[in-house]
Amino acid sequence: MKYQVIEEDGFKYIETGQGETLVLLHGLMGELSNWELVIEQFKDRYRVVVPILPIYDLPILTLGVKALSRYVHRFLKYKNYGQVVLIGNSLGGHVGLVFTVAHQEFVKALVLTGSSGLYENAFGGSFPRRESYDYIKEKVEFTFYDPATATPELVDEVFKTVNDRSRVIRILTMAKSAIRHNMAKEVSKITIPVSLIWGKNDKVTPPEVAEEFHQLLPNSELNWVDKCGHAPMMEHPEVFNAYLEKFLDRILLK
Fold first, then answer.
1. pLDDT attached to residue 2
2. Which residues 6+ apart lie within 8 Å of 26 measured at CB?
3. What is the pLDDT of residues 213-246, one digit of tens each?
4. What is the pLDDT of residue 124?
5. Tally of CB atoms within 10 A around 254
6. In the list 26, 81, 153, 182, which could disulfide-bond 30, CB 3.0-4.6 Å?
7. What is the pLDDT of residues 181-192, one digit of tens each?
8. Which of 250, 253, 251, 234 is nearest to 40 (CA)?
């Protein structure tokens, strides 16, 4: 990433641009670079902010989606952005949902892509062969429709992470929290506009998850990305950005 990470008052984030605020929430294994092409597309018209979720910093006994939602709440209050558009991938979408249910007054609109919160088929309860580079490579490729999207740099980063004992314990704790925290009975409370941008070939949060979200969220739209897995903003950024731009124009410029 060419953007500087700002560290202040216990928060780490990147921020660029001016205007209405877009807050991008990364997934469990996500890097800031996952959002790079979204940032590039929108930084000339919006303030784009990517907080680093403290998955590896919060006390492990309290680690979970609710704890990350509380962190987002503290961050947004500290920055005093007013109402923001929350955009979340995978776990980041789940955190966005939990936050929006609790603090809808902070959120002008919500964008979910490959969000957990209803069902996910992730790594599971362990990494039985985490010392095997080929095994981890296969698991990272599972995330995408086109295995080539799993670049050597991305696989190297995941391999390093899951072979760090402290980090892998936190990842598994966080994943179990997300699986336990099913939001089927809560998301109907979200009445603000929601855009679902979903990979048609997502094997982690399959298409039926998007369809269920669409049914449960009263003010939602559902947009499909063909030949795409769990991270449309990485695999087909031009399509993702086109859907996002159309949604933002409708919500913010009307």
1. 77
2. 32, 34, 35, 50, 52, 53, 89, 91, 92
3. 999 999 999 999 999 999 999 999 999 999 999 9
4. 45
5. 5
6. 26
7. 999 999 999 999
8. 234
**Tokens 């990147």 appear where?**
14
As a whole number, mean pLDDT of residues 10-31 equals 92
Whole-angstrom Cα distance, residue 252 to residue 99? 21
**∠ Cα 188 207 134 (to 5°):** 125
